Amino acid sequence: MRRQRMLHRAWGVIGLSCCCVMTVGCGSRESRVPTFAAAGQVVTTEGVPVPHALIVLHAIEGQAESPRPRGTTDAEGRFQLTTYDTHDGAPAGEFVVTIEQWIRDNPNQPAKNHLPENLAKRDASGIRLSIAKGANVLEPILVR
């Protein structure tokens, strides 16, 4: 009798675990907002590329449930946006952009942001962009 109860509990735990895994697995794809390829470049006002910068898009009001697409610039200041999977783009809509460039000047010191502080703040960056349905080649983002 005791063995039967243990088997029932074990099968119950296994069944519950399977249900949880299936629910989590199924729900994650269904809740994704469609994304569209988007690539751009960050340069200074003098036209110099800004490498190693983190770009984050923040949906403008009315799109609060939207995820935050992001990208990191390469040596030429170029980036591709990622929302869910690498370089899958961003949802269509209007966004405020924040940009930070954290670099360690000295290996014994913490990294510091080499871009103006306001660019890291959603309410102060002043940078906006639009993502349209379809492929997006964004205008260069000018900093400094």
Walk me through the structure.
By secondary structure, this protein is α+β, with helices and mostly antiparallel strands. Helix content is about 20%, strand content about 30%. The protein has one helix at about 1-30; strands at about 40-45, 55-60, 70, 80, 95-100, 100-105, 110-115, 125-130, 135, 140-144. Strands 1, 4, 9 and 10 form a four-stranded mixed β-sheet that branches. The relative contact order is 0.20. Mean pLDDT is about 85; it is low at about 20-25.
Task: Reconstruct the topology from this structure.
Blueprint: H1 2-30, E1 38-44, E2 54-59, E3 70-72, E4 78-80, E5 93-100, E6 102-103, E7 112-113, E8 127-131, E9 136-137, E10 141-143
Parallel strand pairs: 1-9, 1-10
Antiparallel strand pairs: 1-4, 2-3, 2-5, 5-8, 6-7
Say how many strands there are. Answer: 10
Unreliable spans:
18-27
Order of helices and strands: HEEEEEEEEEE
* Shape summary: globular
Radius of gyration: 22 Å
Calculate the mean pLDDT score and round it: 85
The span between the termini is: 76 Å
Helix content: 10-25%
Quaternary organisation of the protein chains: single chain
- H/I helix tally: 1
Structure classification: alpha+beta
Largest sheet: 4 strands, mixed
